Every structure is written in C-alpha cells, then in structure tokens.
C-alpha cells in the first residue's frame, strides 16, 4: 500500500501499531490480537503505559484461545511493514526478539527460523513462525530500505536500463560463494561487489564483468590494483579473485 498512497500509510502507522507493537522495559514485542485488543480497550490513547500493558496481559490470559489454528504470517508482514516505513527502532527490536526467542538456525550458510505452530506461550509472548516469515520476510526486513517497495514501483529497472548497465557473470551459489554486495555506480563508472564463502573455505573464482563501455578499466581487489586493461570489442573483462572467510571487496572501474 505504501506504493499506492504513502501519505495515508505513514499517517495511519501509529493508530494501526497501537497495542500490537509495544515496548515493555526496553523490550519491543509484537503482541497477539487478543492481548492487543484488550490493551486498546483499557488504555484508550495512553500509549506506552507499562502497568496498563501488564494489566492487559493478566486479562488476556483469562480469555480462551481461538478455536481455529493461527496460520497468518503476521510477524513477517509486520517486520516488512516496519522496514518499508523506515521504523528502525521498532524493527531492530523485533529482529532482536526473533534472534533471542524464535530459534534462529543456520544451515549451509543460510539463516532461517524453523516453523512453529504455537501462537504464543503462557506469558503471551510471540512464538508462531511460518515458512514465509522464517525463510523470506525476516531476511527481507533486515535490508531495511526505507520506501524500498515504493522505489521499485516508482523507478523500476526497465529492459532499456538493464541493457545499458554492466553486470557480473560467471559466479553462482554452487561454487560456495556468497555475494554480500553488488552495485553499479554510474557516476563513478564503477562496478562494486563484495564476496566471501559461507563455510570459510577458500575458493578461486573467475567473475566476468559484462556490458562494459569501450575504454581503460582497472580491477581492484581488497584495495590493491590487480590489472588494468583496454576493453575494445568484447565489452567483457574476466579476472580472478580468491574468496574465503573474510569479506573481499572488488571494484571494476573505468579510468579512461
């Protein structure tokens, strides 16, 4: 909705988050609908009142749980919402909550949060985890790009834009290499990437920078000049780089 009417979405944030996202003794929580609705009823407009939140918690404990199993990816929706609106304090709080309470798990270099069908625990603390939230939404939210979806909608990468933009070829996940950054800086005529291996092994790869303009191009690896060549006909430049446990920055830049 932020791509459609950003002013409306931002103006409604406080009203929509009230009772659902709370800060109790420095811990930011996402509350269940039961607890959030009770808090809204007894708090009125008195946001941030810790004693009232504790009172709402005691009342919520007496309310029978819903008869139907809880299945909505609410946690994922909320952290993506916070990320889109640039709500860094609330977002970092919920990400910290997830890392502390929702069983973060690493597997072959990938971080995910395993499925958990339990909605809340006996203290009404969030426990539910679905596949969308655990595999994708939390990871997307960590990027925390303010207006990220809106930017993609307002300024999409068209076929013409991509046809003119340099890109990297010749490296894929099967080689055990992760790309932590990939960026074309048109003002500096520089292609920048950061790589490392997910398991700490040492791997030599040969990326190819494609779609380069004709001219003199230099390749810097970890801040050191490795090669300087003239690109004439092929518009491509292949170089070697060793990836390991430590992040390696690579810059391919046009110097003339």
Question: What's the short version?
Answer:
By secondary structure, this protein is an alpha+beta fold.
Describe the overall structure.
By secondary structure, the chain is of the alpha+beta class. The protein has helices at residues 6-17, 33-43, 50-61, 74-84, 88-101, 131-143, 148-154, 159-164; strands spanning 21-24, 27-30, 105-107, 110-112, 167-169, 177-185, 190-197, 203-205, 208-210, 215-221, 224-231, 237-238, 241-243, 248-254. It has a five-stranded antiparallel β-sheet, with no helix packed on it. A three-stranded antiparallel β-sheet has the order 5-9-12, with no helix packed on it. The chain has a two-stranded antiparallel ribbon with strand order 1-2. The two termini are 45 Å apart. 21% of the residues are buried.
Q: How far is the N terminus from the C terminus?
A: 45 Å
Radius of gyration: 24 Å
The total strand number stands at: 14
- Biggest sheet character: 5 strands, antiparallel
Extract low-pLDDT stretches.
Answer: none
Helix content: 25-40%
Q: Give me the secondary-structure category.
A: alpha+beta
Q: State mean pLDDT (0 to 100 scale).
A: 91
- How many DSSP H or I helices? 8
Reading side by side through the largest sheet, how are the strands ordered?
A: 6-7-14-10-11
What is the H/E string?
HEEHHHHEEHHHEEEEEEEEEE
Shape: elongated
Strand content: 25-35%
InterPro entries: Ldi
Domain Linalool dehydratase/isomerase: 1-118
Pfam families: Ldi (PF18566)
């Amino acid at each position: 909705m932020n791509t459609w009417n950003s002013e409306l979405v931002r103006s409604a944030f406080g009203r929509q988050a009230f009772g659902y996202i709370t800060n109790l003794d420095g811990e930011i929580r996402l509350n269940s609908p039961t607890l959030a609705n009770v808090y809204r009823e007894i708090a009125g407009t008195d946001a941030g009142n810790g004693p009232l939140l504790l009172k709402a918690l005691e009342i919520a404990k007496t309310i029978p749980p819903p008869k139907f199993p809880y299945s909505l990816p609410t946690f994922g929706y909320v952290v993506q919402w916070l990320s889109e609106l640039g709500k860094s304090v609330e977002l970092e709080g919920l990400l910290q909550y997830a890392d502390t309470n929702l069983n973060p798990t690493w597997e072959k270099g990938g971080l995910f949060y395993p499925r958990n069908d339990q909605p809340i625990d006996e203290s009404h603390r969030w426990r539910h985890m679905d596949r969308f939230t655990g595999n994708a939404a939390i990871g997307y939210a960590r990027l925390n790009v303010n207006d990220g979806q809106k930017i993609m909608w307002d300024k999409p990468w068209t076929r013409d834009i991509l046809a003119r933009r340099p890109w990297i070829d010749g490296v894929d996940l099967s080689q055990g290499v992760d790309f932590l950054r990939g960026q074309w800086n048109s003002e500096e005529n520089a292609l920048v990437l950061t790589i490392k291996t997910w398991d700490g092994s040492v791997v030599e790869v040969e990326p190819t920078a494609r779609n380069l303009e004709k001219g003199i191009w230099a390749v810097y690896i970890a801040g050191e000049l490795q090669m300087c060549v003239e690109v004439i006909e092929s518009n491509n430049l292949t170089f070697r780089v060793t990836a390991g446990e430590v992040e390696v920055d690579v810059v391919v830049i046009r110097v003339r």
